[in-house]
Amino acid sequence: MNRQLICAVACVVAIALLSPVVANDVASLPNIVLIVADDLGYGDLGCYGGQRARTPHLDRLAQEGLRLTDFHANAASCSPTRAALLTGQYQQRSGVVEALSERSPGLPDEARTIAEYLKSAGYDTGIFGKWHLGSKPESRALPNRQGFDVFCGARHGGIDYVSHVDRYGRLDWWHDEKPVDEAGYATDLLAEHAVRFIEGRRTRPFFLYLPHLAVHFPWMEPGDESYREVGKNYDDRTKTGPHAPENVPRVVDKMVERLDDGVGKVMDCLRRLKLERNTLVIFTSDNGGYVHYAGAKNVSSNAPLRGGKIGMYEGGHRVPCLAWWPSKIAAGGVNYATMMTMDLLPTCLELAGLPLPPAGGPTALDGVSLVPVLLRDEPIAERTLFWQTGDMKAVRRGPWKVVIQHDQPAELYNLTTDLGERKNLASHEPKHMRDMLTALEVWQSQFIK
Questions:
Q1: Which family does the entry's similarity section mention (predicted)?
Q2: Does the pLDDT at position 423 exceed 90?
Q3: Which of 59, 70, 271, 431 to pair with 48, CA 20 to 30 A apart?
């Protein structure tokens, strides 16, 4: 046997021996389910003190898992938080700093999403819900071009929950890159597609991203008839839905309950397939809820927080967050550490055994892994966190928070003693104020383009 043949045989044997190890390594990776509500308030769930909607499935998730009390969306509005979630970066890096219009380019070409990372580790990846990070047909910023094997849902959002038509009269319901006229209430359809995705993944780990449309307007409850048709342009004033303003809180409660039902379907599927011991489920919201909007009052509950969606007070960006993994996370726990949406990507990378991207490059991470917190109840090193949308800004360091609303003077709050942000301490704590404003200036010099 000549030397070349010996080398060839040795290579074949080595591959045969190594392949099962690699396959076994991939098979042992945890499944990851990330469920994100839209505009859900901090106080909308029973497990966070909510009194209006019934949320038994999410309450059970909290009872069987970990409830995070100081978890924050990266922004007080939609697209920026989604950009931060999928990239692990402050949204200022990608330029997605406000809710994107239909004509916006979306994520830049150099962005790398959580789905792309996990796919490289052997995961099957699926997204069912609202994308809102770019909708141009020629752009790379579409789900199937950013690492997702399967997509069903809305590219942009704000659609009629029944006809799935946006306010410009266009069908915005897609199966991968094909528009589909699929009958059904959007929240139900997304849960059903998510369940089918899980059922079809038996041999490889999966990453399921379920960014629900609920409870964003148009506010429509199950059983409502569609009020938009393809080909008709709708006045901007109709974007909130078919219900009178005084009925909106009741409708939103029904939407929350249907969202909870959908979470229950996903959880029932995981239990039925006996996947719970190797599956991490995280539930959160993209920002706080509306308090008042377009004549409707008490739309959602952010209690006991001040403010709501768009604003820089806690009600705009402190959101519910639950983590569930029966074999790894103790039941009924509560964690008070300060965390952000951008921390979820590095968390997933650690669970998948992937290295962090190089610091200083276009994909450098700003978030930190939450694995030590979630699985070992270890503390997070103190850090200074930042929010900015236009001329609204906030800074958080420990219990201290600075809020700047438009052209108003900067405010300072101690969230440990004043969670409702009622007592402005700016004149009483000048050193804290000065240090945090200096930190904001440094951060802006690095991140604001």
A1: Belongs to the sulfatase family.
A2: yes
A3: 271
Catalytic residues: 78, 132
Locate the domains of the chain by residue range.
30-381, 384-449
Instruction: Write phi, then psi, for 385 (nearest 5 degrees).
Output: -115, 150
CB neighbours of 61 closer than 8 A, spacing ≥ 6? 47, 263, 267, 281, 283, 322, 324
Query: Tell me, which fold does domain 30-381 have in CATH?
Result: Alkaline Phosphatase, subunit A (3.40.720)
Contacts of 71 (CB under 8 A, 6+ apart): 284, 318, 319, 320, 321, 339, 340
pLDDT (mean) for 305-320 = 98
Q: Contact at 8 Å (CB) between 151 and 173?
A: no
For residue 321, give the nearest of 336, 299, 305 by alpha carbon: 336
Residue 380 has pLDDT above 80, yes or no: yes
> Which amino acid, residue 104?
S
- For residue 1, which amino acid is it? M
CA–CA distances in Å: residue 209 to residues 7, 252, 292: 45, 23, 29
Cα(164)–Cα(161) distance, integer angstroms: 5
pLDDT tens readout for residues 240-290: 999 999 999 999 999 999 999 999 999 999 999 999 999 999 999 999 999
List of long-range contacts for 196-203, beta carbons under 8 Å, 24+ apart: 197/126, 197/128, 197/150, 198/266, 198/269, 198/270, 198/273, 198/275, 199/269, 199/273, 201/31, 201/124, 203/27
How many CB atoms are located within 10 Å of the residue 60 CB? 18
Domain with residues 384-449, CATH architecture: 2-Layer Sandwich (3.30)
What are the CA-CA distances from residue 151 to residues 133, 174, 193, 342, 426 (Å)? 14, 7, 9, 22, 48
The stretch 167-180 carries a mean pLDDT of 96
| pLDDT in the model for residue 23 | 46
pLDDT interval class at 14 (50, 70, 90): very low
C-alpha 325/C-alpha 373 separation (Å) is: 13
Which residues of 113-186 form beta strands (DSSP E)?
A: 124-130, 150-154, 174-175, 178-179
Q: Quote the strand ranges of 84-187, DSSP E.
A: 124-130, 150-154, 174-175, 178-179
Cα distance between residue 172 and residue 154, in whole Å? 5
Mean pLDDT along residues 53-79: 99
Instruction: Report d(CA 401, CA 162) in Å as an integer.
Output: 42
Other CB atoms closer than 10 Å to residue 401's CB: what's the count? 23
- E-state strands within 243-332: 279-285, 292-293, 296-297, 321-324
Q: How many CA atoms lie within 13 A of 119 on its CB side?
A: 17
